[in-house]
Amino acid sequence: MRRISLSLSPGDLADGILQGHLLVAIDVLRASTTICQALVAGATDILPVAEIEEAKQLAESLGRENTLLCGEREGRIIPGFDLGNSPLEYTPKRVKDKALVMCTTNGTALLARLRSGEEAVIAGFVNAGMVTRYLLRRKDDVAILCAGLLGQFCLEDAVCGGMLVAGLEQRRKVRLSDGAVAGKLLYKRFAKNLLAMLQASNHGFYLTSLGFGPDLEFASRTDACGVLPVFREGRIKI
Amino acid sequence: MRRISLSLSPGDLADGILQGHLLVAIDVLRASTTICQALVAGATDILPVAEIEEAKQLAESLGRENTLLCGEREGRIIPGFDLGNSPLEYTPKRVKDKALVMCTTNGTALLARLRSGEEAVIAGFVNAGMVTRYLLRRKDDVAILCAGLLGQFCLEDAVCGGMLVAGLEQRRKVRLSDGAVAGKLLYKRFAKNLLAMLQASNHGFYLTSLGFGPDLEFASRTDACGVLPVFREGRIKI
User: Fold this and answer.
1) Residues B208-225 pLDDT 10s
2) Which range marks the domain in which residue A86 is found?
3) Across the interface, do A153 and B7 touch by the CB < 8 Å criterion?
4) pTM of the prediction?
5) Which one of A22, B25, B128, B150 has the fewest beta carbons within 10 angstroms of its own beta carbon?
6) C-alpha distances in angstroms, A123 versus A46, A130, A141?
């Protein structure tokens, strides 16, 4: 039977457990959501990196005229960068036909840990339906990876992972890891009001205090962005 | 307001996050449960270690007449050891007035990561009421640590942690981490049938396949063991 595992924290990732799995990476607040919105708005490529200096060097090497430097630390735009990590900044006017070098605390740091040859689909609530349909078309075991918050569990990624688990389980016979069972139950608890869950979560509460409340509202819109971002060999494309 | 955090996976543990917290360590299947039962049965001390060779050397140095070597790998007794990790083996006849050197895959490995000066209370369903009353008497922030399974999330430790969170929240105003919120919700989902939850969990299913079904039944007995084991400076005592 097909296995579905959900790693609730980035610390759950051990070497080797990803091999032979379809990978899904989740960082609802906000990298997943922002990446989906950026691709909808016409960005050509997104290059996730873990460190600020690495981001600057990569943007220089690509040529700054068609490249934007994007990212945050502690939720705020990195000084000298073109864009922060709010999906609402990623309008066609700003990002169309641009490559984005993106450096965020949790989401792109997770992607940067994947090894050469590993690919991952990026998922948030905003594209959960697309991701579920993609997973239903394939037959491999699935490993869903939550980016978490500063290396720890965060509620919103677990709930989003649980939404994918619930969608798969509804249509196929699957065997769930303990993490997948937990995520599914948490999703069912919050399915009727994802925005309230985001607002009550530790990171959502913090982002709201910084004035990013509208980002939570955007992140809670199920299937608002009809894209399937795939991370492969260092870059994310549709 | 008093903070309650619940680390759902051992990978969530970062240096420094434990400082200034009352620590609670949970490994329902089976180290927590076995430690409680061993102390009820009259063991004087339990010395948790991470590695098998370390266990053998420690037992030799303590003198083998009053020391038992205890532990498991992949659920089974370690060859040459006196006892495995089934709570049902820990009868007064076997363990009364003995020191136990204990080496298990998840639970004692978690304790071995705590640093000198850090102390932790050991909790399972079998002593959850004692642990909750102890935490209610104190005022410090609380960090509850799940041992997990091979470095990953496991359902039963999260549910047990959630039982403690629910007990504290019922009596005091507390601020919960995302992990504590998730644990509490999982506990509420399974509170009425802990045994069925254990049987359906990944590790419970495996232990049942090895013939340890009765251990799950024992582990599910809320407050069966009225002890408060405390780990301090390398040893666990009441």
Assistant:
1) 999 999 999 999 999 999
2) 2-237
3) yes
4) 0.93
5) B150
6) 15, 9, 17
